[in-house]
Amino acid sequence: MADVETRTDSRALNSTAFVKLALAAVVIVSVGLIYLMAPRFEWTLGWIYVGIVVVTYATNLACVLRWNSVLIRRRARLGKGTKAWDAVWLLLFGPAVIAVYVVAVQDLRSEGSNAPGAAWLLGLALFVPGWALAIWSMVVNPFFEKTVRIQTDQGHHVIDTGPYAYVRHPGYVGFVAWMVSTPLMLGSTSAWVPALLAVLLLVIRTVLEDRTLRAELPGYAEYAARVRFRLIPRVW
């Protein structure tokens, strides 16, 4: 019994340490991406955005830790059997996301600081429900890993509850909303170019992942027949 309690305490401490490190990483990366390249620290929209992102990631971690803690360990590593095409996709998607922030900072050099307006409110209206959907997807899906693979080592099976009862890839819907909302919230017109590229890459991954699941995951073809739409109900 003592050994069981010790292992439980150890896992709890490891989870707590992971959360602290993850939050610290989010703060450092968010601030670094936006401000290390910026000419000054007077970008009101940037500070607001960083604050919202930190709160969002903290909420994400808290929800997953509370209702789907196994996912934290699984997302901390790359699982065996990750598809080669997905490794290539990651190499493209990461720079596209970073480019959104780099371009937004370059806009700051010419446009200067500005306060939230109608475009910012529209961005927030996309960002909040988008991330809420992504978090909901992570909470109900223990197989929401970072890469595409058939997780035979984890007893991979079809998830059809929560948002998965409405679309087959709800997490990607949330990430698309994140990308679309970012140029609006940072007040950058030029950032639309890499943001839309990131959205295109997400759509491509949706297609490739869906094909992989249909071909290799038992029961997915039947699930796809019931839940017909990949991202947008009655559209696609």
Structure, explained:
This protein is mainly alpha-helical and 236 residues long. The protein has one domain (2-226): Four Helix Bundle (Hemerythrin (Met), subunit A) (Up-down Bundle). It contains eight helices and no strands. The protein has helices at 2-35, 44-67, 70-75, 84-111, 118-140, 170-185, 192-216, 220-226. Helix 1 (2-35) packs antiparallel against helix 2 (44-67), helix 5 (118-140) runs antiparallel to helix 6 and helix 6 (170-185) packs antiparallel against helix 7 (192-216). The protein is globular and about 55 Å long. The model is unreliable at 1-13 (pLDDT under 50).
What is the name of the CATH topology? Four Helix Bundle (Hemerythrin (Met), subunit A)
Tell me the domain tally: 1
**Major sheet description:** none
Helix content: 55-70%
Q: What class do helices, strands and sheet pairing give?
A: mainly alpha
Please give the CATH architecture.
Up-down Bundle
Mean pLDDT: 83
How many beta-strand segments? Answer: 0
Shape: globular
Q: Helix-strand pattern, N to C?
A: HHHHHHHH
Terminal CA distance: 52 Å
Q: Mind telling me the CATH class?
A: Mainly Alpha
**Which segments are poorly predicted (pLDDT under 50) over 5 or more consecutive residues?**
1-13
Strand content: under 5%
Number of DSSP helices? 8
Rounded to an integer in angstroms, the radius of gyration calculated over CA atoms is 19 Å
Features:
8 helices, disordered N terminus, 236 residues, Four Helix Bundle (Hemerythrin (Met), subunit A), mainly alpha
